[in-house]
């Protein structure tokens, strides 16, 4: 059984900080640009994420509409369905995980993707503080991104983050607009949190 949430702000079963209620992955963006100072704050937040052994395996390549050629290059790596709305956002970011520890091809860092996720989460929350919404995409070609953005061996493109100020969902293509207005859903805690061993129910 899933919990149906309000499509704009989450309606959690337990009181949580408002930033988690307001965070959502929108597809509707305005054409308002994200200025350089704001971009730097987003990446500064990402820089201070928790990291296993302080390896900091995250790397980011951004492309803004201020440079149409760079923006088009990263946009082209997206799946066609994502291009239809991501083209309206002012900023795209390729999130990359450094596969190995150290600087000279050390042992594999099995926490690299986990740490990258933490870094992106902090970026996302800083963005929300700035009034900016983020949608994180797995629907892109890592091979195209590697070639087009010259990502070296040992670094894995993991996701593309679409960032921008919220726009009018009425401007989205019809199918995308329907998805945008669909209720948000989350599994109940009893499906994802266990006590003592896997599958053992929560107390209370």
Automatic annotation (TrEMBL):
GO terms for molecular function: oxidoreductase activity. Coiled coil: none annotated. The keyword Amino-acid biosynthesis does not apply. Gene3D superfamilies: NADH Oxidase. CDD domains: TdsD-like. The keyword Oxidoreductase applies. InterPro entries: Nitroreductase, Nitroreductase-like. It comes from the Bacteria. Keywords: Oxidoreductase. Signal peptide: none annotated. Belongs to the nitroreductase family. This is Uncharacterized protein. It comes from Capsulimonas corticalis.
